[in-house]
Amino acid sequence: MFMDGTSTVSATGIAKLAGVGRAAVSNWRRRHLDFPQPVGGSATSPLFGLAEVEDWLRVQGKLAELSPRELVWRRLHSSSDGLELAEMLCLAGALLIASGNSNERLPTPSGLAEALASIDKSAAELLSAGFPDEWSPRQHEVLTAVAELAEEHGPREVFEFLFTQYVAARGAASNFTTPPSLADLMVELAGPATSVLDFTCGMGTLLGSALAAGTCVDCFAQDIDPAAVRITQLRQLFTRRVAPGVDGRSVVRLGDSLLSDAFPGRRVDVVLANPPFGLQNWGHDRLLYDSRWEFGGVPPRTEPELAWVQHALAHLKPGGYAVLLMPPAAAQRPAGRRIRAELLRRGALQAVVALPPKLLPHTSIALHLWVLRRPLDGARSAQCVLFVDTSPKSDTMREVAVAAWHAFREDPASVPAEPGVRAVVSVIDLLDDATDLTPQRYLPLPDVPYRDSADLLTAYETLDAELGGLLAKLPPLVVGGASPIGDAHLVPVKQLMQNGDLTLHRTAPPAGGSSADRKAVTSHDVAKGRPPSGVTTTNGSEVRAGDVLVPQIAGQLLARVATAEQVGAQLDTTVQALRPNADMLDPWFLAGVLSRRENEHIVVRQSTTSSAQTRIDVKRLRVPLPPIDVQRRYGEAFRRIADFETSLARVNDLGRLLARGLGDGLAAGAFDADLTTPRNSGDRRLD
User: Fold this and answer.
1) DSSP secondary structure string, 138-193?
2) In CATH, which of 3.90.220.20, 3.40.190.10, 1.10.10.10, 3.40.50.300 is domain 489-625?
3) pLDDT at 52 over 60
4) Torsion, CA 183, CA 168, CA 253, CA 78, rounded to 10
5) Is 403 helix (H, G, I), strand (E, B) or coil?
6) Separation between Cα atoms, residue 550 and residue 561, nearest integer Å
7) How confident is the model at residue 681 (pLDDT cuts 50, 70, 90)?
8) N or C, where is the chain less crowded by C-beta within 10 Å?
9) CB 161 within 8 A of CB 184
10) How many other CB atoms are there within 10 angstroms of residue 125's CB atom?
11) What is the pLDDT of residue 240?
């Protein structure tokens, strides 16, 4: 598959090839006399022969048998030869998109630029700006392997795989990518369009969803990140080459959309954007007299999000729609009241949709979607706004939002209010001292269930039964007796991983091109021992029976064995799983000793955050390691203690629910204060 070549790889690249940490490679160099010797570099940053390293890893059983496309990705990831990983991906993408327009498997950089120009001159200028003068030996080897793979699997399929791997490899740096499910919702709210603009395009997910909808002809995009701009251009080219009937322009430009708008005067049918939040230096002083500030004047320095809103409206045709992802603070900050009020008076703001929390990996807050429309010239402005709250309904977010919006567009006056879900509010009722656009403020309260005494009686009886058997769940323990683990040697989790006694599993942040929504186990699910309540759009690590789940960020250290309901679900990005070798480690014992107080001290001592939440590095935790029969005996005791704690939490929740229901019912006159005497023959008593 690959040329022999003379490629070299750093110690970090070896770690990537083997799927281990950098420290493991240093350990192999010390412990294994046959480990390949450096062939270049320096004493502190040595380089090794790539082929020799792969042979050694394969002999040692440390190089897993990978598919051809995974091998190509490993080569691309570890052989950038001074280029950023994104630039290597763009080189590979450019080669793949031009593969049918060149007579050579790997043309020279100038030949590749010519092949791209025959497809799209504008795209060729943008992409070829990152080409080297000539291919280095490593680049030549990797790009040749990419071309060979494309001959077998097709250029688009190869690029989408490499792109997905790239997003996962970037980790936290890719957290600002719009999840595909959210992108599809934004496109559906915007409606059919022949021209679309995304002025903070990132890596092009929103434009990809717009093209997939089938009506978009012209796409315009801008971003401040050079790598993101090139990737967006590549994804646009691939989409247009394979989608039947998709033709038109894909113009992608580099630059700051507020300070250096690449499309001045351009008006489109739809604007879609996931702009950055909380910018401090967005250009307020340089844009005081900008013509885009039509709605309420210059945005305050502390309101960059409202600058994005007016930028979007400035690029819309009359009657065109914009859908922007916004932080909830933009709906209520006092400094933005004037602009929010003008958006309402002019009929530009049509709807605000509250989204479920943790929809984006980089933030846990529940964001908003603002649906805006550029007023028609001379037309009477809208007199009402739609508010929708999808936050309690993450599994039906799209259906709830789309149903409410379609009904509103058809006839705002006929949209019935739904408690806790949607409401149509008159503009005059919104124009108060705050002009607060938070949806939950205007939704009718859900019907209070306390009038159904049968539910309260059921809760009462369940609580009574739970309380009666609560203490029986605790295991019998001998106080003051000798313990076989009291003086046991403590072993770091990292060492257990290196010994092969357990493996660590995580889920990368969602990436473009990922699968449909799947159930995911969140940190709260771990803490409460409940079924998975989260949603993920990526094919991450799947929970297996016997996995020990540990939240990565929590107020305190917690480890729990996966429940039967959690098995088969995906790991949320906030949860990590330790998968023990059952012959060496008992899962319940491992979960119990991981949560020990001494490990709490390690977590606190190594925490660098000033908040109450601590990021937990599970590799640093230490556990005793007695014989497996002792582990299983102790593991059963730990299991019963965890069961007791889960039951206690359930009793607490049930007790609070019952107390609130009884108090509300008593205050509303649903119950007689004299509980010893039924109100009538049909009443029942709570004794």
Assistant:
1) HHHHHHHHHHHHHHHH-HHHHHHHHHHHHHHHHGGGGTTSPPHHHHHHHHHHH---
2) 3.90.220.20
3) yes
4) -160
5) helix
6) 9
7) very low
8) C
9) no
10) 13
11) 73
Token digits for 351? 């709807």
Quick one: average pLDDT of 444-465? 70
The DSSP letter of residue 411 is: -
Nearest one of 195, 189, 201 to 269, comparing CA atoms: 195
Of 250, 241, 194, the residue nearest 219 (C-alpha): 250
Cα distances from 465 to residues 282, 458, 666, in angstroms, run 60, 11, 24
Average pLDDT over residues 400-413: 92
Q: Specify whether the CB–CB gap between 208 and 183 falls below 8 A.
A: yes
Strand partners, 41: 46
Where is pLDDT greater, at 120 or 405? 405
Phi, psi of 372 (to 5 degrees): -120, 155
3-state helix, strand, coil split of the chain in percent (to 5) is 45, 15, 40
Cα(50)–Cα(659) distance, integer angstroms: 67
Q: Determine the 3-state secondary structure of 24 from DSSP.
A: helix
Domain coordinates in residue numbering, the chain: 8-170, 173-441, 489-625
What distance in Å separates the CA atoms of residue 331 and residue 320, rounded to the nearest whole number? 22
Are the CB atoms for 276 and 245 separated by under 8 Å? no
Is 41's pLDDT higher than 50? Answer: yes
Q: Is the distance from CB of 32 to CB of 18 less than 8 angstroms? A: no
Task: Report the top-level CATH class of 173-441.
Answer: alpha beta
pLDDT score for 547 = 94
pLDDT tens string 145-176: 899 998 888 888 899 899 888 887 765 455 45
Q: Each residue of 257-291: b (16+ CB within 10 Å) or e?
A: bbeebbbeeeebbbbbbbbebeeeebbbeebeebe
